[in-house]
C-alpha cells in the first residue's frame, strides 16, 4: 500500500481530520511531505510527536480529544488493538537494496547452510529476493508463514513466532532490519546463532556477544531481586501493553514481604522515576523495555515473567 491507497481509504471513511502516528525514523522531511500531501487532498493532518513504538500504541483517546476522525498509523500493521475511531495502517516499506550488502558480506554466512530468514516490517518485501540470492549460492532458506502475522518472516520486538516456527530447521537466522533491535529479540529466545543484515550500516553482524551480555545482566538482576526491599512496578496504559498490576503488587507484599509501588505512565523513562527511593523495578510494559533499557534506569530491572519463572 502506498500513499495513494492511504488517501483512498481515508476518503472512503469520509475523513476530515486525521491523527498521524509515525515512528521516529520518519521525523524528518518525509513526514512533513506526507502531511503536505494529505492537506492537498483535503485532509487536516495532526502529527503526533509522542514516540510511537508499535501497533500496541494506538492513541485513540488523544485523537478523539483533538476532534480527529481517523488515526493514520504509519510503519506498523494491525495486530488487534481496538480504538474508538477507525485506524488506517500504512506499512511504509523503505526503499532499499540489500543484495549489494549480501554480496560484500557473504563470507560471514560461511558455516551456515540452513538459513532462517526473518525481518522487520520496513524491509519484509525484500525477503523473497534475498531468499533467491542465497539459494543461488547453495544455501537452504526457510521463511515461516504463521497465523496472526501478516507477512511471511515478519518479526516484531515482542512477537517472534515467524522465527520460533523454523528454529529446529535452521543452522542460523539472518534478520533483515536496521540495527540489532529485532534480531536481539529473537536471539534471546533461541539457541541458534543470529546474524543481522543491517540495511542502514550496510553490514552483516553476528550478535551472539550481545545475547551473552544481556543474559549476564538478567542473571545478576535475579540475584539482586531476592534482597530488594522497595519495588517499583512500571505500568503503561497503552492499550496494547496494558497489564493490570494490582495482583502483582499484592503478591510482592503478601507473599514476598516487599514494599511495592505502582508507577503508571504513557511512556516511562528514567527521568520520570528519578528521586524515588527504589531498590528494584519490575516491568509490565513492552517486554523490550525490561531487556534493552534496563541499564538506562540505574536500578536493577526484570520483566514480570522473569520474576515468575525465577
Summarize the structure in short.
This protein has 310 residues and is an alpha/beta fold. The chain has three domains: 3-90, 3-Layer(aba) Sandwich (Rossmann fold); 99-206, Diphthamide synthesis DPH1/DPH2 domain 2 (Rossmann fold), CATH 3.40.50; 212-309, 3-Layer(aba) Sandwich (Rossmann fold).
How would you explain this protein's 3D organization?
A 5-stranded mixed β-sheet has the order 6-5-7-8-9, with helices on both faces. The protein has a 4-stranded parallel β-sheet with strand order 2-1-3-4, covered by helices on one side. A 4-stranded parallel β-sheet has the order 11-10-12-13. The chain starts with a helix and ends with a helix. The chain has 3 domains: 3-90, Diphthamide synthesis DPH1/DPH2 domain 1 (Rossmann fold), CATH 3.40.50.11840; 99-206, Diphthamide synthesis DPH1/DPH2 domain 2 (Rossmann fold, 3-Layer(aba) Sandwich), CATH 3.40.50.11850; 212-309, 3-Layer(aba) Sandwich (Rossmann fold). It has 12 helices and 13 strands. The chain has 310 residues and is an alpha/beta fold.
Name the CATH homologous superfamily of the largest domain: Diphthamide synthesis DPH1/DPH2 domain 2
End-to-end C-alpha gap:
44 Å
Our count of domains comes out at 3
Q: Which segments are poorly predicted (pLDDT under 50) over 5 or more consecutive residues?
A: none
Shape descriptor reads: flat
| Tally of contiguous helical segments | 12
CATH architecture verdict of the largest domain:
3-Layer(aba) Sandwich
Q: Percentage of helical residues? A: 25-40%
Write down how many β-strands occur, each being a DSSP E stretch of 2 or more residues: 13
Could you tell me the strand content as a percent range? 15-25%
The mean pLDDT is 92
